Description:
Elements: H1 6-17, H2 19-38, H3 42-62, H4 64-83
Amino acid sequence: MIREDKTLDLKKIYNHFGREPQLKKLAEECSEFLKAYLKNEEYHMNEEIGDLKVLVDQFYEEEITVQQTYRNKISRTIERIKSGYYER
């Protein structure tokens, strides 16, 4: 059962397995997503996106540099959109 405040669950998972094993798992899930994408397997893509979200959220909750980088990337993308850097 998922609690409303999933932050504690994400931290518990991350701390149980540790950084390096979770990085390895993240790489594995990226590979599985790519395979599903290349085969155009919608159901499997959704499954892998869910797996990736759980893993990425763990790193976001546990590593301050990930949080800072995340915010910086959003700000930079918004600025680039405003400046016309990206074409539609």
